[in-house]
Amino acid sequence: MRRSSGYTLIEILVGLTIIGILFSVGYVGFREFSRRQQLSGVIKEIKGDLRLAQARALSGQIEGCTSTLGGFTFDILDTKTYEIKAVCSGSPASKTVSVPGNITISSTIDPILFKVLGEGTNIPEGSQAEITFTQTETGTTAKVYVSHAGEIK
What we know:
This protein has 1 helix and 7 strands, in the order αβββββββ.
């Protein structure tokens, strides 16, 4: 009798099938993880931009204004773009940001005005603005809230 060492075709196919199944499950999990991270990153970025607008309004000064600063607005231009801009005459600096292609943005109050010197916002007292982010591929939503006093959550 002759002894041969090695794997049969059936053993190789079973091994490849198991590896393929494990790879598929891992890939789906990683894709969902990366989508959650992308949405989380956009939320952190917008909170930072809202705090930037709030801090600039609290300082009461901005370069490029030729009149008294009225505050800073957070304005949603369309479902993919928002802008932070000073409210004054002249040519004040502004910041325009586009969110990633698979995320949309909307708000219950638009624009949100951060008034100067700690006077709060244009949001009615007792209510809050709700900024909603939706990931179009999964339908996952996340929300950022801004209160009448300017608190960002």
